[in-house]
Amino acid sequence: MVVPAITDPGGMMPVPLCGCVPVVADTAPGSFNCDVDQIEALIGPLTSAIIVAHVAGEPADIRAIVALADRHGLPLIEDCAQAHGASMDGKPLGAYGTAAAFSTMWGKHHSTGGQGGVVFSRDAALIDQVRTAADRGKPSGSTIPAGRNAIASLNFNQDELASAIGRAQLSRLPDIVDRRRVFVEELRIRLDDEPAVELPEVPTGAQPSWWFLRVRYHGIEGWDKERFAAALAAERVPVNATYAALPHTYEWFRERRVFGASGFPWTATEYRGDPDRQFPCPNATAAIADHMVLQVMESWGAAEAELIATAIEKVVTVARGG
Ligand SMILES: Cc1ncc(COP(=O)(O)O)c(C=O)c1O
């Protein structure tokens, strides 16, 4: 199964946990999102599906990726964990693929309180299978014989309280996303002439929802990214020097440690690929190396964009020795 290089571990770990081997697609140069060419290069006779993440709420090149999946007859799963309310050409992300998964943990635009998630698909039979998988394999709909557990699965049921929070929060989603767009566009205007930092370009037709904002740091002599980010943090800007989200570089993946020391699914007899295959992903590695991550708060607008731009300019001035 093709998975994106930059994603939360929760966007990749379910793949081997379901017995599928993840093959890792690099991102587009300078981007946190996958490139259609990088995905295509990985497709082979063993490929069963493509997972694409819209990281930070920035739409991936979804139209081209849908066309690619269709060309190869592969299901496409959109990971919309960070992309609630984002769209491409007016169509919401999550409505492009065969199915989409949304995380609704407390920090997401659409939250159900603690933890949780939503799966969307237009395929009713597929949703029946999802319900079954989310409820200890219990029958759901007409696809599975009644009275029997169809598969072994865990209990991912959502309780009523979480559902009530989720319904209320969903009605606020458009406002939450609008505010973030205002904040980012104001910040963009303010920082347009500042060569030390660069905000992501928005492709034509894309409407991001900005779960966070990646900020490219171009470097000032004597000030590496960590030092620059630490100075911003001292100005109370909620910034992280790095988005640590390259799951394939982590120990569990490198050591293929999913089901104890068995090496499964890489060691499965049915698997005819190279179990030790490496994924260098130079674009993703470079993108992580030269970006900081600015957290964007729900209540922010133009005034906060002004404050943050002023703090960035102050740090730039100090770094340049002014
Ligand atoms: C891109 C991505 N995929 C998947 C997940 C996993 O979501 P959850 O923690 O709700 O399982 C996250 C969580 O932040 C994520 O950011």
Please explain how this structure is put together:
It is a single chain. A four-stranded mixed beta sheet has the order 3-4-7-8, with helices on both faces. Strands 9-11-13-12 form a four-stranded antiparallel beta sheet. A three-stranded antiparallel beta sheet has the order 6-5-10, with no helix packed on it. The protein has 322 residues and is an alpha/beta fold. Helix 5 packs across helix 9. The protein has helices at 14-17, 36-42, 62-72, 124-134, 160-191, 225-234, 251-254, 282-290, 302-319, and strands spanning 2-4, 23-25, 50-53, 76-79, 87-88, 91-92, 99-103, 117-120, 197-198, 206-207, 212-217, 239-240, 291-295. Strand 1 (2-4), helix 1 (14-17) and strand 2 (23-25) form a beta-alpha-beta unit. The protein contains nine helices and 13 strands. The protein has one domain (2-116, 158-319): Aspartate Aminotransferase, domain 2 (3-Layer(aba) Sandwich). Bound molecules: pyridoxal-5'-phosphate (PLP).
Provide key terms for this protein.
alpha/beta, Aspartate Aminotransferase, domain 2, four-stranded mixed beta sheet, 33% helix, binds pyridoxal-5'-phosphate
